[in-house]
TrEMBL record:
Protein's UniProt name: Tc1-like transposase DDE domain-containing protein
Domain of life: Eukaryota
Sequence ranges assigned to domain Tc1-like transposase DDE in this UniProt record: 100-257
GO molecular function: nucleic acid binding
Length: 297
């Protein structure tokens, strides 16, 4: 409570005027609080008095060190140091909160990675050499829809979806693949995690929402629509696509594609996930600075 804060500052000889300015409380209220302490002999209030104190135990200890190091510094200096400290704590807290988010999304990968006519680098006279040609496959080609998730310390299951994603296939994906992994994660890590999804219709439809509510899935609320710059999993899809390019000569069909994607997924290192999540504060600030337009992320 603010009463304990007033009592604490009084012990260091702060005047009623200084205390009033520091904690943004009227001087008459501060005076009454000091008189109450003098009368009751305790800083504990039997009844709530104003808003809860913004000074936690750590802040109080820090404030004590500041005052002891220089008892003659001005109240403005103290206020500035406390504001700076508050901002630092806020950023740290936000970063920790991002680490409790499980990021999810889906993406599509093709057997053949080129649309239209790709460019090829070759010497004059090598136009028709086999190493400079992309062969076509009759009744071949195709693509795979995949869904997955990750958090600050690792990756969830890579789920292959038949056809296009809809509410039924999305709920099947969550119930059969995601939920067992999620329960294991919360048990092993002994923590609560928030599930992130974008606002695609099959994510937020009635059936999907009913399933998530019935399984008490803690979903990150109010995620902005059409915001790939904010979702760090987009970088994982880009990494998969990049590594797929080096395997293209060996990928002849969707089964080859499935096997290769699984192999790449299993080789992703935890440090990559950590780096992506640690970028969230900068991502958010970048989107704010761009007023919702595209960013470098």
């Amino acid at each position: 409570m603010k009463l304990s804060t007033i009592f604490y500052l009084t012990q260091f000889g702060s005047s009623q005027y200084d205390i009033s300015n520091m904690i943004d409380m009227r001087r008459t209220t501060v005076e009454g609080a000091i008189n109450r302490v003098a009368t009751t002999g305790t800083a504990l209030a039997g009844k709530s008095m104003g808003r809860p104190s913004s000074f936690d135990d750590y802040t109080k200890r820090h404030l004590e060190r500041i005052i002891r190091s220089d008892p003659f510094q001005t109240i403005e200096t103290l206020q500035g140091q406390l504001r700076s400290m508050s901002n630092d704590v806020s950023r740290t807290t936000t970063d920790k909160q991002w680490e409790q988010v499980v990021w999810s999304d889906e993406s599509r990968f093709r057997v053949f990675g080129h649309d239209g006519k790709p460019k090829v680098l070759r010497k004059q006279g090598e136009r028709y050499e086999s190493c400079h040609l992309l062969r076509t496959v009759k009744y071949g080609g195709g693509s795979l829809m995949v869904w997955s998730c990750f958090w600050a310390d690792g990756y969830g299951p890579l789920v292959f979806v038949d056809g296009n994603m809809n509410q039924n296939s999305y709920v099947d994906c969550l119930s059969q693949k995601f939920l067992p992994w999620y329960y294991k994660l919360t048990h092993l890590e002994d923590g609560e995690y928030i599930f992130q999804e974008d606002n695609a219709p099959f994510h937020t439809g009635g059936y999907a929402n009913w399933w998530k509510n019935s399984h008490s899935l803690n979903v990150l609320k109010d995620w902005p629509a059409q915001s790939p710059d904010l979702n760090p999993i987009e970088h994982i899809w880009s990494e998969l696509a990049r590594q797929l390019r080096s395997h293209r000569p060996d990928i002849k069909n969707t089964e080859d594609l499935r096997q290769t994607l699984n192999e790449i997924w299993e080789e992703l290192v935890p440090e990559f996930a950590k780096t992506l999540v640690s970028s969230m504060s900068k991502r958010c600030q970048g989107v704010i600075d761009a007023k919702g337009d595209a960013t470098k992320y």
